[in-house]
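QA checklist item 7 of 12: single-chain prediction sanity check.
[x] sequence parsed
[x] length recorded as 187
[x] structure emitted
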Amino acid sequence: MSTRLMRFTLGAANPVAVSRGAYDQPPPAPVFDMHYELEMGVVLRGRMKRFLGDAAAERGPGEAWLCGMWETHGFDILEAPCEVVVIVIWPPLLASQRFPQVPALSLLAPFTLPARQRLGKAPALAAEILQLGQRIAETAAGTGAARAIRLQLQVVELLVLLWESLVGAETVTGAAGPEVFHRSHPH
């Protein structure tokens, strides 16, 4: 297994990068990479197998995945054609988000859960996750002065949905919140 170290140029002015991947056939072997930024993705069509640590799970349309900072992760295509939207996020963007209406909400929390929980499924939300994934891909491909803001809002919307399904109010207290990130990454 070979792991590719990825480098992105994300920061305060450009905190989110989105790419759309299309695979007409499986790669000869699973593909692995690792990077500082957080990664979230949604399968738009086809099926893939996602690897994270010692966990692996199949993903189909409307199913998401989450990878934390410096975690080796990878994929293999199970059913082609396969199309995905991959979102790479500058961690301080999520660490600085506060929602007084839901004080327990931490957008970093889903990324800090054990790998097997992050690869969990939310079948009841598949249609909504698929729709959000498609909107994010369309926004990323578009232009306009507000494109970056719309993209950030859509990413936050998807993360809130995933937080509700993966973490919920009970589990979030055990996950690392923004205060942990700020202590370990001072400005």
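[x] summary fact logged: Confidence is low (pLDDT under 50) at residues 169-187.
[ ] second reviewer sign-off
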